[in-house]
């Protein structure tokens, strides 16, 4: 899940898709509903009053800051939900190529590594989930078992595809 402390969708791209697993989309929908409940409870709670001076009550300012942040998070999640596309396994005759949702076993310098290629919102490299937009994810998409892909980031690395499977 992305860090929603700031509006991470400030530069929205029209027609942008967010590729998510069913579980990932359910989590975002749950987070969305929870934020709406929190916002509602903050609005219905007792709002701080102005002090008898020209300054605003700090509690009042804090409440409005909290509400603004909550609203930004809610708007971001609404946008994601509206533009979500579920990752589904490809048809049997296309499961020999790497697509979104593939679990891929690769050999890198005589060592094996396995990861699943997902959309950016569910990527977590330390847990073996890489983004389809990452350099490795982009390079592997569309390839088959036996293919070798050369990636040239600071160091040239060859990824040999050993196995592809879909859940």
Describe the structure.
The protein has helices spanning 22-44, 58-82, 135-140, and strands at residues 18-20, 84-86, 103-108, 111-118, 129-131, 148-152, 156-165. Mean pLDDT is 86; it is low at 1-6. It folds into two domains: 18-86, Helix Hairpins, CATH 1.10.287; 92-165, Chitinase A, domain 3 (Roll). It is α/β, with parallel strands linked by helices and 167 residues long. The chain is elongated. The strands form two sheets. A five-stranded mixed sheet has the order 5-4-3-7-6. A two-stranded parallel ribbon has the order 1-2.
**CATH class group of the largest domain:** Alpha Beta
What is the subunit organization of this protein? single chain
Instruction: Using the 3D structure, state the CATH architecture of the largest domain.
Output: Roll
Major sheet attributes: 5 strands, mixed
What is the CA–CA distance across the termini?
Answer: 21 Å
Strand content: 15-25%
Low-pLDDT residue spans: 1-6
On the 0 to 100 scale, the average pLDDT is 86
| Radius of gyration from the alpha-carbon trace, in angstroms | 22 Å
> What's the number of structural domains?
2
Strand order of the largest sheet: 5-4-3-7-6
Percent helix among the residues?
25-40%
Q: What is the tally of helical segments?
A: 3
- Number of DSSP strand runs: 7
**CATH fold-level label of the largest domain:** Chitinase A, domain 3
Q: Look at the helices and sheets and give the structural class.
A: alpha/beta
Secondary-structure element order, N to C: EHHEEEEHEE
Shape: elongated
């Amino acid at each position: 899940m992305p860090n929603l402390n700031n509006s991470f969708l400030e530069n929205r791209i029209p027609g942008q898709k967010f590729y998510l697993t069913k579980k990932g989309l359910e989590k975002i929908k749950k987070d969305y509903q929870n934020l709406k409940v929190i916002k509602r409870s903050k609005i219905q709670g007792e709002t701080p009053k102005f002090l008898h001076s020209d300054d605003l009550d700090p509690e009042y300012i804090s409440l409005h800051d909290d509400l603004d942040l909550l609203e930004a998070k809610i708007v971001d999640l609404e946008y994601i939900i509206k533009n979500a596309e579920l990752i589904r396994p490809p048809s049997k005759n296309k499961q020999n190529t790497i697509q979104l949702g593939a679990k891929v076993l690769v050999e890198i310098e005589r060592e094996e590594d396995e990861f699943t290629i997902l959309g950016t919102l569910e990527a977590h490299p330390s847990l073996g989930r890489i983004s389809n937009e990452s350099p490795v994810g982009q390079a592997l998409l569309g390839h088959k078992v036996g293919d070798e892909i050369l990636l040239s980031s600071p160091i040239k690395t060859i990824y040999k595809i050993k196995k592809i499977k879909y859940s």
